[in-house]
Design brief:
Blueprint lengths: L1 H32 L16 E3 L13 H13 L8 H17 L3 H14 L7 H21 L3 H14 L4 H12 L12 H6 L4 H7 L3 H9 L14 H6 L2 H25 L3 H16 L12 H28 L3 H8 L8 H13 L42 H4 L3 H10 L14 E6 L5 E7 L4 H18 L4 E18 L2 E19 L10 E2 H12 L3
Antiparallel strand pairs: 1-5, 2-3, 3-5, 4-5, 4-6
Helix pairs in contact: 1-2, 2-3, 3-4, 3-5, 4-5, 5-6, 5-7, 6-7, 9-12, 10-12, 12-13, 12-14, 13-14, 14-15, 14-16, 19-20
Length: 543
């Protein structure tokens, strides 16, 4: 009897072990490209996988190690679950493995995977929607690899072609711009970033960091708008628990403070002392706003970060702003006093200030300024790190969102306005999905789109297209994107208040736009509404 139970025990163990073996295949596909395991009766593109929050499958986990993704893809390709006719899914898996190889610096293997992915999807060559999704993605990934291998002309040709196909997709614009700026080189031309800065407010600080000539400062001052300062919110409890939340919070505050103060300096350098000081005071007010709740404690994170931003960014820039104003006004002793005893390093702004002081005091006995230290090394982001942002899902005309159906029912809103005592077109049309737009007190308009699609680029483009329509409807030719947020939307499952899993369900983009008069249309960050409609209208109008 003892031997019988032993035999039963082994049989039971074998059955138990058989379950994880099947689950492992699903995890391998999800861990490779983020989609569910293919079935035999479909094209293999089965939708988003559910991700376990306590470890995460690497294909959807931003913190996943590239080698983990490579191993998951290898097991998925060797599993026998991917049929020969499921060519699109095979291309999708090969692209994911190639992107991970790219992050590991395995350029030959990455290029081989990208070529294999292209070959697997050969039947889709020439398809408009495939080319502007998978095709653009593969071209930019190849461009990154070729650029890092020193084959820069080939890389730029691929990058420029990809950008021409999808100029308003954020990831495409970012990678193409960073690549043209040089991978590992100092991107010293601020004009290089202007096109990207039109649709991506997050990169506008690069323009201010690189501005070093009077023309650059004039451009920065002309596009700055009113001195409104919004500091980043404190990290959530979840961000703190993941680690690095405090450091990231401090970094965001320092960057935001520096951007505002560089704008103040641009006004000072171009002779507008009043506006320069208004920007300085706006920054001072933002940094002096009292924290609330637990963060208000003397040792609270918010209090510490405010002090760090004041000492590390605000004070040095405030001194340089006042010194630049003093130079313009011929008060050289005041300028020298503002900088005395301070440790400044070479940068575009300090070089401008020191050069302006030297030129203005060449024939006088004005006091000397302190010597500048060596400039910190500045490099553009390593492009391989941006590879995961390029893994956009394949698109097709069949999956194209009906843009017209997603827009608010304007006629119904007008009819409802009579009942609701005059609800305007820009207000009072709430939606849980589709478009929503709100006129804000400062005259800007918030336009957002919530899409139940796994193509973030489509959601971004549709939001931008609606923004362009709003400008045209208001009789404006251009608009300015004052702010934008791009979100991924997940369906989460929790147990006892703790998230256990999540499934990607769509994307959301929110833009705050300012409608520009004729004078503002000439600013460097103005977006041409008609150009947007001409580029995106034929795709999303279905006409």
């Amino acid at each position: 009897m003892k031997n019988l139970w032993a035999g039963l025990g082994l049989a039971s163990l074998a059955l138990v072990l058989a379950v994880p073996a099947q689950a492992g295949v699903s995890e391998d596909f999800a861990g490779c490209d983020g989609l569910r395991k293919p079935k035999r009766s479909d094209d293999g593109m089965r939708g988003e996988a559910t991700i376990a929050s306590w470890g995460g499958w690497p294909g959807q986990n931003p913190g996943a190690q590239p080698i983990t993704v490579v191993n998951a893809c290898n097991r998925a390709l060797d599993s026998g679950k991917l049929l020969d006719e499921q060519t699109l899914r095979r291309a999708h898996v090969l692209r994911a493995r190639g992107a991970a190889q790219l992050q590991l610096g395995e350029y030959a293997k990455a290029l081989a995977d990208f070529e294999a992915a292209r070959a697997a999807g050969r039947e889709y060559d020439g398809d408009f929607f495939y080319e502007r999704s998978m095709g653009v993605s593969l071209d930019l990934l190849r461009a990154i690899a070729l650029n890092d291998l020193g084959r820069r002309e080939e890389a730029l040709a691929l990058s420029d072609a990809a950008l021409a196909k999808r100029p308003y997709a954020l990831a495409v614009q970012r990678v193409a711009t960073f690549l043209r700026a040089g991978n590992g080189d100092a991107p010293t031309d601020p004009a290089l970033w202007q096109t990207l800065a039109q649709i991506d407010p997050a990169t506008r600080s690069l323009t201010s960091q690189l501005a070093g000539t009077l023309d650059d400062f004039r451009m920065l001052a002309a596009t700055s708008g009113e001195p409104v300062v919004e500091m980043p919110p404190p990290p959530t409890l979840e961000e703190m628990m993941r680690g690095g939340g405090a450091e990231a919070f401090a970094g965001k505050w320092l960057a935001a403070t520096g951007k505002v103060m560089r704008t103040a300096y641009a006004h000072a350098a171009t002779g507008d002392a009043e506006t320069a000081r208004r920007w300085v005071e706006a920054a001072r007010a933002a940094l002096s706003t009292e924290a609330k709740g637990d963060e208000a404690k003397p040792g609270g994170l918010d209090t510490l970060v405010r002090k760090l931003s004041m000492v590390g960014a605000f004070d040095p820039y405030a001194d340089m702003v006042e010194a630049r104003i003093a130079v313009n006004e011929g008060r050289f002793a005041d300028a020298a006093a503002a900088l005395e005893g301070k440790n400044f390093k070479h940068s575009p702004i300090t070089d401008d200030l020191w050069d302006a002081y030297a030129a203005a005091t060449a024939d006088s006995d004005a006091p000397a300024l302190p010597a500048l230290g060596d400039a910190p090394e500045r490099t553009s982001p390593k492009l391989a790190a941006l590879a995961p942002d390029l893994l956009m899902r394949p698109e097709s005309e069949r999956k194209l969102i009906d843009y017209k159906k997603s827009r608010p029912n304007v006629l119904a809103a007008l009819a409802g306005a009579a009942v609701t005592m005059g609800v305007g077109l820009l207000n009072g049309i709430p939606r849980t999905s589709g478009f929503e737009q709100t006129e804000l007190p400062d005259g800007t308009v918030k336009v957002e789109y919530t899409g139940n699609t796994t193509s973030g680029a489509m959601v971004q483009e549709m939001t931008l297209l609606r923004a362009a329509e709003i400008a045209q409807e208001a009789g404006k030719t251009h608009f300015h994107i004052a702010g934008r947020e791009d979100y991924q939307r997940y369906l989460t499952q929790s147990q006892y208040g703790v998230e256990r899993s999540r499934t990607l369900t769509g994307y959301k983009t929110v833009m705050t736009i300012a409608l520009l008069d004729d004078g503002g249309a000439n600013s460097a960050q103005a977006v041409d509404a008609l150009a947007v409609i001409d580029a995106l209208g034929p795709i999303y109008y279905g006409e």
